[in-house]
Design a protein that fits this description.
This protein has no helices and twelve strands. By secondary structure, it is an all-beta fold.
Length: 190
């Protein structure tokens, strides 16, 4: 199976990475993966830098080059995929609030048709209040399983874990909300 490698501190809060904590894993054998054919692991390999599971040194776990994540902005992540198996789904999970849980609002998906050998795009809306300046967990999975979560086993595909950082948007401000009728006299709100 292919396993993840996000840091797991053995207590709460923690990312689920190992089998003991229902970490994500994918059965290997089908031609369905993110960029390069994954290697196999016996269990999740937590690593402080999410670099623990490149066992055969073919760099199969660093397929994604990330754009800059800025609080309050939409970001598109290009994910190179190979699918010569069956229609599948690419899942992206990013822990924007740093609570070690991949919430539904921190998830993006896209269908990957059979025969795809190229880049798929996942669109994330980075919350204005996203935790910035610290490492946040990011997990990407591809599988024919429908409604896959960030944790647990999958019958096929691959998982890749990363750490990303969000930058604060210098243009973000806290604004008022008094009514503004568009003429004078009016409260100045916008």
């Amino acid at each position: 199976r292919d396993w993840g490698d996000l840091p797991e501190n053995g207590g709460a809060p923690s990312y689920n990475t190992t089998s003991a904590n229902n970490g994500p894993s994918h059965e290997l054998g089908q031609e369905l993966w993110i960029l390069d054919k994954p290697d196999a692991e016996a269990d999740g390999l937590p690593d402080p830098n999410a670099l623990g599971d490149d066992n055969d040194n073919n760099n199969d776990e660093s397929s994604i080059t990330f754009p800059t994540f800025v609080a309050g902005q939409t970001v598109i992540v290009d994910v190179p995929v190979y699918n010569n198996y069956a229609d599948a789904t690419l899942y992206g999970f990013i822990d924007f609030n740093g609570d070690f849980v991949f919430d539904p609002t921190e998830t993006a998906t896209v269908v990957v048709p059979n025969g795809t050998n190229g880049t798929m795009q996942l669109t994330f809306n980075v919350p204005a209040n996203a935790l910035n300046g610290v490492s946040l967990g990011a997990r990407f999975r591809i599988s024919t399983d429908s409604s896959l979560n960030a944790d647990g086993p999958a019958r096929d595909g691959e998982i890749e874990d990363y750490l990303i950082e969000v930058q604060a948007d210098a243009g973000l401000r806290d604004w008022g909300d008094l009514p503004e009728n568009g003429g004078a006299p009016s409260y100045n709100t916008t």
